[in-house]
Write a structure and sequence with these properties.
Blueprint (H helix, E strand, L loop, with lengths): L6 E5 L4 H12 L3 E6 L2 H13 L4 E5 L5 H15 L4 E4 L16 H29 L3 E6 L10 H21 L4 E8 L29 H12 L10 E4 L10 H8 L21
Helix pairs in contact: 1-6, 3-4, 4-5
Bound molecules: NADP nicotinamide-adenine-dinucleotide phosphate.
NADP nicotinamide-adenine-dinucleotide phosphate binds next to helix 1, strand 2 and helix 4.
Length: 279
């Protein structure tokens, strides 16, 4: 039990990846505070956790609003008397980031910065005193591999901010025993990503492993970073994407069709010690 009796706050813990993180945290012995806007989904999540013997509370609020972020942290501390781990998972993304007449560029930017970056900034800032009072703790922010891919526009911009925020929190928190890290998921199967592919079989191309990830696979990475197992890890971003970002993707169908060795004719022929690569 790597989080036994720790109080863990998970924003957006009432669905998708957040729900996976909550499940893993409860499995590691944590008491969990969940935040989201939808109280119905919150109640369903609480039901599931309590039926399994876990301890959890749900607080509703729009975390892109600073007063809601502050109230959430206050409610969490009041309910459990302490706070050990903050997971900033709440967020929303879109590939439709271009400017449209009905929706000016500033509006569109703020729609993405609010839930993704400002929520993580404000929740963490209000949580810092409680983490310090607990004698140290951990912050884990959920970023996205959209930081690498320009086709995600302002969503990637907001998530790049989340990674910069993580490093700032690591520097600020270190003297107080607070570690801050980020997890950067690739394609993960949630309600948000359902039906987003152009073709039915697109999921096979969502990673090098031929599938999308599942929320628990992000949950396990978060638990590692939140626990003492990661006691010397701070300011880092752990990419959990099944190899999506390490690949020159357009090459894959070619490699599959002709075999990698044909890329550099002669390279693997004859004496392996003296490769005859391109001149
Ligand atoms: N799925 C992926 O492939 C993927 C990949 C990379 C990164 N991510 C990131 O992972 C996180 C979770 O994504 P997901 O796929 O699990 O999406 P999801 O199922 O739509 O869950 C998003 C969660 O965030 C909460 N939320 C959104 N805006 C909020 C706000 N303003 N205030 C409070 N809560 C808010 C939602 O709660 P309510 O519904 O109650 O508002 C919901 O619980 C996000 O940060 C996302 O950017 C996802």
């Amino acid at each position: 039990m790597r989080l036994k009796d720790k109080v863990v706050l998970v924003t957006g813990g009432n669905s998708g990846i957040g729900r996976g993180i909550v499940g893993c945290a409860v499995g590691e012995g944590a008491r969990v505070v969940i935040a989201g806007r939808d109280p119905e989904k919150g109640a369903d999540t609480l039901d599931e956790i309590r039926r399994a013997g876990g301890e959890a509370e749900f607080f509703a609020g729009d975390l892109s609003r600073e007063p809601d972020a502050r109230a959430l942290v206050e409610q969490a501390c009041e309910r459990f008397g302490r706070l050990d781990v903050v997971v900033n998972n709440a967020g929303a993304g879109s590939r439709r980031c271009g400017v449209e007449a009905a929706d000016g560029p500033g509006t569109r930017l703020r729609k993405l910065m609010g839930p993704n970056l400002e929520a993580a900034y404000c929740v963490s800032a209000y949580a810092m005193p409680a983490l310090k009072a607990a004698g140290g703790g951990a912050i884990v922010n959920i970023s996205s591999t959209a930081t690498f891919h320009g086709n995600w526009g302002s969503y990637g911009v907001a998530k790049a901010g989340v990674e910069a925020l993580t490093r700032a929190q690591a520097a600020e928190g270190a003297p107080h025993g607070i570690r801050a890290n980020a997890v950067s998921p690739g394609w993960i199967k949630t309600g948000a990503t359902q039906g987003t592919g152009a073709k039915e079989d697109w999921e096979a191309t969502a990673s090098l492993l031929g599938r999308m990830g599942v929320p628990e696979e992000i949950g396990r990475a978060v638990i590692f970073l939140a626990s003492d197992e990661a006691s010397f890890v701070t300011g880092a971003t752990l990419i959990v994407d099944g190899g999506l970002t390490v690949t020159d993707y357009p090459s894959l169908p070619f490699l599959e069709a002709v075999g990698a060795w044909k890329l550099f004719p002669g390279l693997l022929d004859g004496n392996q010690d003296e490769p005859s690569g391109p001149q």
